[in-house]
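Q: You know discrete backbone vocabularies at least as well as I do. I have my own habits and do not want them to colour yours. No explanation is needed for now; the record alone will do.
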Amino acid sequence: GIKAAAEELGAEVVVLAPQSGSDINGQVGMMQDAITMGVDVILLNPHDDAAAAPIVDQAIAAGIAVFNINSDATDWETDLTGVIGYAQRSGNKEQGELVAEAFKDQELKIGIIEGLPGYHSTERCGGFEDGIASHTNYEIVASLNGQWNVDGGNQAGMDMLQAHPEINMIYCANDQEAMGLLQACKALGREDVTIIGNDGNTEALEAIYDGDIYSTVNTVPYEMGLYCCQAAVDVLYGEFKGGFVETPCYVTTQDNVLSFLQQPDRLNPAPSKEY
């Protein structure tokens, strides 16, 4: 989304990304690389806010505008240019409410696969719990850290289901963890586990279509990228007013997933087939 908007707006984009959502040191090093390049704006999705704060301070001191993206965390340790992203707690609360209503006649033993400790995990997991709180037919049995990645979700899922075989629903703080959990469920022959995610990754959307994952909070990353690039250009022309720019998100199930899969130019990677 950022690349598409940059082409239209005449901006040059350099993309740097660590291999894993748990590679905090790698991300800090890439921030240092961006400062050395002399870029005008950094759009940052921080793995760890506290770890990123000192390098963000360096970037700002160097005259670089810095946006925290894919987030709604406005209370930061340093003076950011702006924050661009979706409302994590309310989006997941909406998902929790939808799930609670859909499964109101079942007894739910719920597991939670968190992300790395921090704001994002707290808001997403907390929002889901807020959403199911009005119902009484559930018990949260276990909660483990899935490290924000597929391997972490797989390991957490294996450990959780082996220790608590009564669990029949697991909420994951992101879709990478949900895909890892799906692998664990298949390995253990647990087709009865309802998997809930967050993000809107292509693989997860396809898994929802196939019935392997129940739902996700689809943040439409492509659309978020359009907002991010526009704000980056606006700040350079003195037109960005600061503060939080909220981007849309959609609770996505089999009922509406096709509307996203049928727009492959807005998904990266593209779906594995034509829908």
Remarks:
- The beta strands are 41-44, 65-69, 82-85, 108-114, 138-145, 169-172, 194-199, 215-218, 244-246, 250-252.
- The two ends are 21 Å apart (CA to CA).
